[in-house]
Design a protein that fits this description.
Number of helices: 12
Number of strands: 18
Structural class: alpha/beta
Radius of gyration: 22 Å
Distance between the termini: 25 Å
Order of helices and strands: EHEHHHEEEEEHEHEEHHHEEEEEHEEEHH
Largest sheet: 6 strands, mixed
Length: 390
Amino acid sequence: MTQVTDVAIIGAGPYGLSLAAHLRARRIGYRIFGDPMRFWRDMPVGVNLKSLAFATNIYLPNGGHTYPEWCLQHGLEDFEPCSMQSFAAYGCEMQKRFVPDVEEVFVTKIAMRDRIFEVTLASGERFLARRVVSCTGLSGLSHTPNALSHLGPERMRHTFDISDYGEFRGKTVAVIGAGASAIEAGALVRENGGLSDVFVRGQDVVFHGRAPRIRPLWRRIKDPTTVLGTSRSGWVLQHLPLLVYRLPRERRTRFVKTHLGPASPWWIQDRVLGKVPIHVRHELVEAAVVGNRVQLKFSNGEAPMKSVDVDFVVAGTGYEVDVARLAYLDQTIIQRIKCIERSPELNSKFESSVPGLYFLGPLSFMCFGPLFRFVSGAQVAARRLARNFG
């Protein structure tokens, strides 16, 4: 095994493709692995982007070829709401044009060999890499409440694992969660011929207001339109992307965990309100299979607990960043990664405590802030790493 590559990129979504495009322009040796835009391609029909179109691009070193430009060329909405399918098609086109060397094979293991990384592919190939960049997004990080974890996939699945809601036609479905994925799942079950109820632990469900394309000057000054919505804080996070990293660790951790809590976009309201029952103050306590049904028990602070019987449960309960859940990392590497809670602790160049191992996207947001939970963070990350690697 004598082949050595400079950079191995794991993941072919927006972060991985943006980084590869920048490395390619600088003639830095790399190999990139994964199924291009798979997360987006697997989304059910009827699901839209949660971000504005101008905030959702494959970021190329010379600019241009933005998603809104692509949408206009194809006669599609170029602001919001934009479908996941259109963004997936755009991303795949950009990949074929600007990162044609994606290897559509998965990385199964990364281990250390002296001071270099040994990368094993699903094809059986092994090679060495001086640097490894993890760009696997939310894959493997879906969170399922303990009360549901014992139910098999024939009775319960996370929204991440559902690509066709047509399977719920004629079934009663309980959706657990308060964020956009849960509310959207409630609408999709109903629209595909099922009966859905959404159960929310908190006091209410939050819907974002619509961001008008054209706004008065005073509104643009008071609450600028940014990649994170219309707000001054969003403007600061967009234009000073490393500011969060420079905050004291305790303050930074508190900020990233509370900023931009669970909320749904404005365009989903008409598809759920008055059509899909939403039960607030319902905390899931227990789930059991009784006969061919699932019995759920909820607590609302009063006795007795509420019992609900359904055919299926959908967990729209978000994601948890836990580096130990990355199955492709060897345990000896995981044990060497210093963490903030369960997220990798990174330096200002996105490098972990294991020299040469980098994390982008959601795996970096505990250090760099909310911008990096979204596609828009790929612009900053790709440029910064490419300059550092060059």
